[in-house]
Design a protein that fits this description.
Layout (H helix, E strand, L loop, with lengths): L2 E5 L2 E5 L6 E6 L2 E10 L2 H11 L6 E11 L2 H11 L3 E6 L3 H12 L4 E5 L3 H8 L6 H25 L1
Helix pairs in contact: 1-2, 4-5
Length: 157
């Protein structure tokens, strides 16, 4: 089970040694986040359940590097995000950027932003049920976590 962290009353399910994937819900915004690597089935099942909850209007993918999904996970993700506003927050990883660009060619309208453009990402999300400041605080916490946790795991091994 991922570690839970509270940020301004919102719970972040932070990745740990068992997974590179985490998630958070901030009002109507659902954020999938993590770092490069294969996404575990059990963690992604929890993400899909979160995306399917009533009231989720915006789906955000935020990563450092490319999170690898199986073909079954990609199909389920595409079903879960239908009809939602889509935003990404990426590092300058060419693979991750290429995936988002290719999805755009297939008709998905995705607002692609980078970690140094968090204000632009929040504006693209257009949160209504949470304040932009709360969403920004959650994204800043996520950014710190997905940079620091892999470093700490590597140092511990």
């Amino acid at each position: 089970m991922p570690t839970q962290v509270d940020v301004r009353g919102y719970t972040l399910h932070v990745p740990d040694a068992d997974s590179n994937v985490g998630w958070a819900r901030v009002g109507e915004v659902f954020i999938l986040f993590g770092w490069a690597g294969k996404a575990p089935e059990d963690r992604m099942d929890q993400v899909f359940e979160g995306l399917e909850q009533a009231g989720v209007k915006t789906a955000v993918g935020a990563s450092i590097g490319a999170i690898r999904l199986t073909s079954v996970q990609r199909k389920r993700l595409s079903e879960c995000i239908k009809g939602k506003r889509l935003v990404t927050v990426l590092d300058h990883n060419p693979i991750a950027r290429g995936i988002v660009t290719a999805l755009g060619w297939f008709g998905l309208k995705i607002e692609m932003t980078h970690w140094n453009q968090l204000d632009k990402a929040v504006a693209a999300m257009g949160p209504e049920q949470a304040s932009p400041q709360d969403v920004l605080a959650v994204l800043e916490t996520i950014q710190s976590a997905i940079i620091e946790i892999p470093k700490n795991l590597a140092a511990a091994s």
